[in-house]
């Protein structure tokens, strides 16, 4: 008998380590266990929470936790009957679920050791615990399919919350993506005012440390995209937990974490997470198997990432090049631009794939490729020609807005797609009513910058249509937009009367000279004034503009040293040419040469005063860079074409010398090259004799 009593008391002490005093666990609708005061016949033996301080012990003990109920089983004096209910499954530390069948467990301590005895007890439907049923877990996909609004998701959460809470946020973001912008704003207001929203946020913060890492990242991404302010306790808490658990990140989580960082605004916690992300990528880069994940990681790594990490990612991408799909090749341009890494090998290989699969390429992809080429300063003439030819071949199905956007990107790259620009001119002439003010400004800027209209057969008709379209908006156009449009007309050597008359009004000029962008406006007004004086504008020549002194900083005067040396050798000394010549209207030329009208010989500057002005031809030698021409051609861009036109009006013959070509030539070849530029064809043999004599 004493042995039985001792065994029972030993069992009792074991129960006391597991069961809270005067309280038991009740399963609330939120899926969390909270203490609940029960009837006095509940025999509670000790304070559970004070003993369970370690999270690991807490999880372990709850794998076989016991909840005790009286009036069932055996009875001893002074001690209520105890039923031990075994918990079949524990999803997380503060959550308990029950089945209808539970085990009555007693432990008998005898001389033979420990003995476990199981008594099965069928709990009646009237039992308090079984009245609270286990909520059915619902996925975010099912939630997004069954609910039509963010409030519907929160209502579902209120009825029967399930773990993890990330499913609710993910479902709300999935629904929000289907809504228009106005609907999103309205739904967000309802979401913030919903009574269950704060409760869901609290659940999310409590579950952050115990839910799977991928669900933590999904929820953080959804929360940010839903527009919940980043400085809130919810977002900052999730950021900190994400930092602490970053070592749990696998390949899939790397992709999600990349999207999270890309969606968030800079702050201290985001910066710390970004640094941890880079360290993690540096460690796991060779383990990444999925090409899409690799590209997402590369895009998120940041422009300021260490160059060693960028090169490591580049090498990984080169290794996977054979596995690139067409979409991977198309996206590679945007990825490299996002990390500001110009890998010519990757770009060249991806360009070939893009050209081979150009048919059916979406406009968004083409625009992203061109924008990335601009950011990376990557100029691939074959790629640009292929893209332009494809747009021209499918021109009829393209909207005007997208064609203009592509042309603007081509202009930024310095590329002139002749066929595409001709087609657009034809459409504009046929349908001028389709133009709005924004389109007019874009078209004028693109065509004037690329100097395209100079060779077109329908040049005058096109310019008249554009001038007429601009005139229709004169009542509403701003002064700066009007100046931009007129400036573009000046580059194209066209001067429509109505826009010019409105621009030259005193109040418009005064507004331009007092605006925030005054320097740019003054520069354009000086060019306008120069065009009125030097170009063929008889009906506008009497207009005098009162402009402030042009303060534009001229570039440092360093004429090409090799060209100066070649001219000295070719002409017989520096007395036959002048360097760094400044002309009226803020024009500057690198070298000036005086030749006779037949271009048979170069005249020394000392003999110019005695010679008749009619017998002298002034030649302006301009040393120009690649950017002064359209890409891959010798076609001068708008400003150079206007400068050449104005130098001709000032009495100069213009000689263009390409810096990059001159740098490649040996001295003898350079002399021959300049000789053909300066002398006429008939005078070349004579010039050769003079050169040999010198």
TrEMBL record:
Its main location: mitochondrion. Residues 619-676 form the RAP domain. GO terms for cellular component: mitochondrial matrix; ribonucleoprotein granule. The keyword Mitochondrion applies. InterPro entries: FAST_2 (IPR013579), FAST_kinase (IPR050870), FAST_Leu-rich (IPR010622), RAP (IPR013584). GO terms for molecular function: RNA binding. GO terms for biological process: mitochondrial RNA processing; regulation of mitochondrial mRNA stability. It comes from the Eukaryota. Pfam families: FAST_1, FAST_2, RAP. It is found in: Mitochondrion. Keywords: Mitochondrion. This is FAST kinase domains 2. It comes from Piliocolobus tephrosceles. The lineage of its organism: Eukaryota, Metazoa, Chordata, Craniata, Vertebrata.
């Amino acid at each position: 008998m004493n042995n039985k009593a001792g065994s029972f008391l030993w069992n009792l002490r074991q129960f006391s380590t597991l069961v809270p005093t005067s309280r038991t666990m009740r399963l609330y609708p939120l899926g969390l266990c909270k203490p609940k005061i029960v009837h006095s016949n509940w025999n509670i033996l000790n304070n559970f929470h004070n003993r369970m301080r370690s999270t690991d012990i807490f999880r372990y003990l709850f794998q076989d936790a016991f909840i005790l109920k009286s009036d069932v089983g055996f009875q001893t004096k002074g001690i209520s009957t105890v039923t031990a209910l075994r918990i079949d499954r524990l999803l997380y530390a503060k959550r308990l679920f029950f089945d209808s069948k539970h085990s009555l467990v007693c432990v008998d301590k005898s001389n033979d050791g420990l003995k476990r005895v199981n008594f099965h007890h069928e709990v009646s439907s009237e039992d308090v615990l079984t009245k609270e049923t286990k909520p059915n877990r619902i996925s975010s996909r099912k939630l997004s399919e069954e609910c039509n609004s963010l409030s519907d998701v929160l209502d579902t959460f209120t009825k029967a919350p399930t773990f993890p809470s990330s499913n609710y946020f993910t479902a709300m973001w999935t629904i929000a993506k289907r809504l228009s912008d106005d609907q999103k704003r309205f739904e967000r207001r309802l979401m913030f005012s919903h009574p269950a929203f704060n409760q869901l946020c609290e659940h999310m913060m409590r579950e952050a440390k115990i839910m799977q890492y991928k669900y933590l990242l999904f929820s953080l991404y959804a929360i940010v995209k839903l527009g919940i302010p980043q400085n809130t306790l919810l977002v900052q808490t999730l950021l900190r937990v994400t930092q602490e658990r970053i070592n749990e990140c696998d390949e899939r989580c790397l992709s999600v974490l990349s999207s999270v960082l890309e969606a968030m605004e800079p702050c201290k916690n985001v910066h710390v997470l970004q640094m941890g992300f880079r360290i993690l990528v540096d460690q796991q880069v060779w383990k990444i198997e999925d090409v899409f994940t690799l590209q997402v990681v590369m895009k998120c790594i940041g422009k300021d990432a260490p160059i060693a990490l960028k090169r490591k990612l580049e090498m990984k991408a080169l290794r996977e090049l054979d596995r690139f799909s067409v979409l991977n090749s198309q996206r590679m341009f945007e990825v490299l631009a996002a990390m500001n890494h110009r890998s010519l090998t990757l770009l060249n290989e991806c360009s070939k794939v893009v050209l081979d699969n150009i048919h059916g390429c979406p406009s968004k992809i083409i625009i992203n490729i061109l924008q990335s080429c601009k950011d990376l300063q990557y100029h691939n003439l074959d790629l640009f020609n292929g893209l332009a030819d494809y747009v021209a071949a499918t021109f009829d199905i393209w909207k005007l807005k997208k064609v203009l956007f592509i042309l603007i990107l081509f202009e930024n790259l310095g590329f002139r797609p002749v066929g595409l620009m001709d087609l657009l001119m034809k459409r504009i002439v046929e349908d001028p009513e389709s133009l709005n003010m924004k389109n007019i400004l874009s078209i004028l800027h693109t065509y004037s910058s690329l100097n395209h209209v100079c060779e077109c057969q329908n040049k005058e008709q096109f310019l008249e249509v554009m001038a007429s379209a601009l005139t229709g908006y004169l009542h509403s156009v701003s002064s700066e937009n009007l100046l931009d449009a007129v400036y573009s007309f000046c580059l194209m050597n066209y001067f429509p009367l109505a826009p010019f008359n409105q621009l030259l009004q005193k109040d418009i000029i005064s507004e331009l000279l007092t605006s925030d962008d005054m320097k740019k406006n003054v520069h354009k007004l000086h060019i306008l004034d120069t065009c009125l004086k030097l170009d063929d504008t008889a009906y506008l020549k009497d207009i005098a503009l009162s402009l402030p002194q042009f303060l534009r900083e001229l570039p440092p005067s360093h004429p090409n040293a090799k060209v100066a040396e070649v001219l000295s050798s070719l002409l017989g000394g520096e007395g036959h040419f002048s360097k760094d010549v400044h002309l009226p209207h803020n024009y500057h030329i690198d070298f000036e040469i005086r030749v006779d009208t037949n271009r048979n010989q170069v005249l020394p500057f000392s003999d110019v005063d005695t010679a008749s002005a009619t017998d002298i031809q002034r030649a302006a030698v301009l040393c120009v860079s690649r950017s002064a021409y359209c890409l891959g051609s010798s076609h001068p861009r708008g400003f150079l074409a206007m400068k050449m036109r104005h130098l001709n009006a000032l009495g100069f013959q213009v000689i263009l010398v390409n810096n990059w070509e001159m740098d490649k030539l040996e001295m003898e070849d350079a002399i021959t090259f300049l000789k053909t530029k300066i002398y006429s064809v008939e005078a070349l043999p004579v010039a050769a004799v003079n050169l040999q004599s010198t």
